[in-house]
Amino acid sequence: MKKTILFLLIMVFTLSTFFGATLTVGAKNFTEQYVLGNLATLLLEENGFNVVKRFGLSSFVVRQGLTTGQIDLYADYTGTAWVTYLDQEEVITDPDELLEKVRELDAENGIVWLDRINANNTYALAIRQEDYKKYGFETLSDLVGYWNEHPNEFRVGVDYEFYERPDGFFAFADHYGLDIPESQVSTMQIGLTYEAIANNKIDIAMVFATDPKILRYNLHVLEDDKNFWPYYHISFAIRKDVLDEYPEIEEILRPLTLYLNQDILIRLNYRIDVEGVEPEVVARDYLEGLGLID
């Protein structure tokens, strides 16, 4: 019996070594996250890991998965961590300083943040180009000043998470002194704000700075002149115990830090949202083009 158990243990160890360790990669429920999740998955698989993909999750679910050990790593945003996960209110205007402070605080949760990717997917509000020409709004302060004097003139659309999160719409309204009742804010599924503003169902849309739909729908993004939203630079967050066991993961994912930037990410997102290419295909084409996978 003891010999049988020992034989089985040896077989399990041998098979796991031969076939590679298994990692669970997470991703949130919007285009850019599917791109990043697939990029990480393909690089890890190329380097011998088996990957289980858990994509299409909300910020809160994927973060909880990381902290409870159900997810090993995923791409997140420094601003989201600082405000939403770590409950910080200080506004930090240096992206590297923000990353270091996130790293310091999240280390207490057993989470390591890798080097940041040079892309800032911050929240923003956008208006149609014809309204930009009509009103001349350049900044959010321009919009709010007029909006408070004409409270019934604009309709705004946001997704459900932005409606509720602590750095979302109503926190923005408080920061800028916008007096607006909840009844004037429409909620919709993520991404549908673009179609809504293009079809004149709303006048102001919540957008993401790296979303190619800004170009597709010819929108004008208003400057956050009072620095309400922190930087939302992208970094892979990974459980410390996983990185301790497989330190090579950092080097495997490093090409994403070296080669990805905001313009490239917008183009990758564009292939999915505008051209209809599947996220995994987009990710594979990009990595093959760099010679990082076969």
Automatic annotation (TrEMBL):
<dbReference type="InterPro" id="IPR007210">
    <property type="entry name" value="ABC_Gly_betaine_transp_sub-bd"/>
</dbReference>
<feature type="domain" description="ABC-type glycine betaine transport system substrate-binding">
    <location>
        <begin position="22"/>
        <end position="288"/>
    </location>
</feature>
<dbReference type="Pfam" id="PF04069">
    <property type="entry name" value="OpuAC"/>
</dbReference>
<protein>
    <submittedName>
        <fullName>Glycine/betaine ABC transporter substrate-binding protein</fullName>
    </submittedName>
</protein>
<dbReference type="GO" id="GO:0043190">
    <property type="term" value="C:ATP-binding cassette (ABC) transporter complex"/>
</dbReference>
<dbReference type="GO" id="GO:0022857">
    <property type="term" value="F:transmembrane transporter activity"/>
</dbReference>
